[in-house]
Amino acid sequence: MSTSNIIPDTVLGLGPQFQRLPRVLIVKIFKMALQVTDLPPYESSPGTILCLDAALERGFNHVAAVCRSSQALALELIYDANTIEFLCTGSYRKPSQFRTTMPPDMPHFQVRNLLRHIHVEFVFEDGYLAGHPANYSGISFSTRPARIPITTVGQLMLFSPSAAWFSMLTQTAVGFSNLDSLSIDIIVDVRNNRQTALQIFQNANFSVHANSVRINIKNRQGVREDWHSSLDQAIARV
Questions:
Q1: What pLDDT, on a 0 to 100 scale, did the predictor assign at position 18?
Q2: For residue 231, which of 191, 188, 173, 167 has the smallest C-alpha distance?
Q3: For strand 207-208 and strand 212-219, is the pairing parallel, antiparallel, or unpaired?
Q4: 142, 134 in Cβ contact below 8 A?
Q5: How many CA atoms within 13 Å lie on the side-chain side of 11?
Q6: Quick one: which of 95, 234, 97 has its CA closest to 167?
Q7: Number of C-beta neighbours around residue 42 at 10 A
């Protein structure tokens, strides 16, 4: 009787069937390896990194150095395992030539559609300075020019770079168009008429797109005012 068809009691762990893990398990392993968990407590929570370069440095580069064939999967999963933060406030940031707040530094537009989770910060102002240098150090407050009120949507887009960038945040061609979660902090610096500012904001027809959207609006002091709910309602979730 031939013994070639008899199944042995034990099988050696050799061959491709023992060298490949199910994709779902590989994805889970990679996500655990690529999630940033060593940030100081005051910076952020695990899985949230303050800039895209940190994501690549802390996660992707380590995996890519071990296995070149896993680079494509690692790059895809590092964007899925972490929330990338884009912040525009801080003493190190310079204002625009109109003394309005610049938007956060954004990655190249070809990379934006790869990100899945972002937390972004914008500052909206209702006034600007024109015809003067951006650096006002050494100039007394009594001699500084008065802020010029923003009264139209066109002026808002021209003199407030943050508002202009926000208007195309999730646009397909240039924005983050493939987000699972989007968290937005909007700091409103209104020094003129609130009703005028609200009307301009509503006329701008802002909209954002993501599977999950969270918007938090507050003033410079970090306080949410009653009228901020109307600003929130003016942003369409599509």
A1: 46
A2: 188
A3: unpaired
A4: no
A5: 7
A6: 234
A7: 5
Strands (E), the chain: 48-49, 83-86, 117-125, 127-128, 148-149, 181-189, 207-208, 212-219, 236-237
- pLDDT average, residue stretch 144-157: 88
40-89: pLDDT as tens digits: 433 444 455 555 655 555 556 666 666 666 666 777 777 777 788 888 86
The 8-class DSSP code of residue 36 comes to -
Provide the pairing of β-strand 148-149 with 127-128: antiparallel
Instruction: Read off the tokens for 196.
Output: 């005028």
Distance separating alpha carbons of residues 187 and 125, to the nearest angstrom: 9
Inter-CA distances, 60 with 17, 27, 32, 46, 56, Å: 27, 14, 12, 16, 5
Query: pLDDT per residue over 168-227, tens digit each?
Result: 999 998 999 999 999 999 999 999 999 999 999 999 999 999 999 999 999 999 999 999
Query: Could you tell me if 96 and 132 are in contact, meaning their C-beta atoms sit under 8 angstroms apart?
Result: no
Phi, psi (deg, nearest 5) at residue 182: -130, 120
Token look-up 């801080």 returns: 90
87: closest CA among 101, 68, 66? 101
CA distance 66 to 238: 41
* Residues 215, 219, 222, 223, Cα dihedral to 10°: -90
**Predicted TM-score (pTM) of this structure:** 0.73
Of the candidates 188, 186, 181, the one whose C-alpha atom is nearest the C-alpha of residue 219 is 188
